[in-house]
Design a protein that fits this description.
Elements (H helix, E strand, L loop, with lengths): L10 H20 L9 E2 L1 H9 L3 H21 L5 E8 L7 E11 L4 H68 L4 H36 L8 E2 L11 H9 L2 H19 L8 E11 L3 E11 L8 H66 L5 H35 L5
Parallel strand pairs: 1-4
Antiparallel strand pairs: 2-3, 3-5, 5-6
């Protein structure tokens, strides 16, 4: 498989150069948003936290427990019945008779097997729903995690833009002292600095909002300020055939196949559900008149299946089988469609991010170098310098956005193949 890494480390250098980068780092360290934190979260940490006690996962697991409880009830054999009867004359001297008998139900039909298979099929359905819930919540948490990282990078871009413009202010001040710059340049760059600081402020707000979304999703206090340890760079592109195979074998589909097979077993067992259960009775008969005589009681009884004929369980089995088959087909198609869409998006964004980085890096560095040196030497105007700075910011933000979109596509692909659970 090809292994290519997005390049994101040169953004700051392209923006401000060596001294500007040092200023940006200093500003970043002094920023109230980026103070050193005690907590550092990786992707693995976020996955572990979100899957531990997430409400959607708890609901799905509770439904599994409910289905298992119903299955236990279905699996019980019918209770036997102990009966005692006495027959006697109320007045005078007469005889009495005591009968103690045990009646045991014996079901020779497939009714119980069909009900048991149906209960197991419902458990399998609930298990598949739990897997889906875990995958869904894991994908949401990872998306929020990487959106937080992207927000941090946008803040860094804004910090570097402010640092670069502060450097421009110093150059203009020096040129004014030499009499080679107009006072209008000072006013123009002051406005540009304030605009950059305003963009920085809104970037910090967006970053805090992204963190708050992640914290709420994880059920953590919103005043937590973790450091997010991760990269937007996607390093590996899997082959489409391989991820399609993964999607076919993912746990949720395997569990739904088991549900379909159990429903089919229930349909087969229900074919003999018309056979009525037998009631076998045996016991002791004590007949007292002048002497006590000991006898026995034995009997067999069963219902005449004129009306029910096991129709209810047969209909339930057929319905469950049809639902399981259709649901498996729908889920399989949906998984394949999601894999193909996510793979196409990932491959396209992956290629575009690398192409854009390669095509802009040299031109951007040359443009900034020419604009900076030219303005210091009086060969370039302030407008040209500011245009170069704006281009640098736009390119840096485009790099962040492309890598974030590629990471989102990668998360969607992992979710579609069942890798997140």
């Amino acid at each position: 498989m090809p292994q290519m890494i997005f390049s994101g480390t040169g953004v700051g250098m392209a923006l401000v150069g060596g001294r500007g980068r040092a200023i940006a780092i200093l500003l970043l360290a002094l920023s109230p948003f980026s103070t050193a934190q005690a907590q550092t979260w990786t992707e693995a940490d976020v996955l572990a936290m979100v899957l531990e006690g997430a409400p959607d996962v708890r609901v799905a697991e509770g439904r599994i427990a409910q289905a298992e409880a119903l299955a236990d009830a279905v699996g019980l054999y019918p209770d036997p019945m102990l009966r005692w009867d006495r027959e006697a004359v109320a007045t005078g001297v007469g005889s009495s008779q005591d009968v103690v008998a045990l009646t045991v139900p014996v079901d020779l039909s497939g009714r119980r097997s069909a009900q048991h298979a149906l209960a197991d099929a419902r458990i399998a359905q609930r298990e598949a729903e739990a897997i889906d819930a875990r995958s869904r919540i894991a994908a949401a948490a990872l998306t929020a995690f990487y959106e937080g990282i992207a927000s941090d990078e946008r803040v860094e871009v804004a910090l570097r833009a402010v640092a670069a413009l502060d450097e421009a202010v110093r150059v203009i001040t020096a040129r004014e002292a030499q009499g080679t710059a107009a006072g209008m340049d000072q006013m123009r760059v002051t406005l540009e600095v304030e605009l950059a600081r305003s963009v920085l402020a809104t970037s910090e707000i967006s970053a805090k909002l992204a963190r708050a979304r992640l914290l709420v999703l994880l059920g953590r206090p919103v005043d937590d300020e973790p450091t997010l340890d991760g990269t937007l760079a996607v390093s590996v592109l899997p082959e489409l055939a391989a991820v399609l195979d993964e999607a076919e074998e993912q746990p949720t589909l395997a569990t739904r196949r088991r549900a379909r097979e159990l429903a089919s077993d229930a349909t087969s067992s229900a074919a003999s559900a018309w056979i009525p259960p037998l009631l076998l009775t045996g016991g002791v008969n004590l007949d007292r008149e002048t002497n006590t005589e000991v006898g026995y009681v034995a009997g067999v009884s069963f219902l005449l299946p004129f009306f029910s004929q096991g129709r209810a369980v047969s209909a339930a089995a057929r319905g469950q089988s049809a639902v399981a088959e259709a649901e498996l087909d729908a889920r399989t198609r949906r998984a394949r469609a999601a894999v193909v869409a996510a793979h196409i998006r990932l491959v396209g964004l992956y290629a575009e991010a690398n192409r854009f980085d390669a095509e802009t890096r040299g031109s951007l560095e040359g443009l900034l170098l020419a604009a900076n040196s030219g303005y210091r030497e009086g060969r370039r105007t302030l407008v040209e310098l500011l245009d170069a700075r704006r281009a640098a910011i736009s390119v840096a933000l485009r790099r962040v956005n492309l890598r974030l979109e590629a990471r989102r596509a990668e998360i969607a692909l992992r979710n579609a193949t069942g890798a997140l659970r």
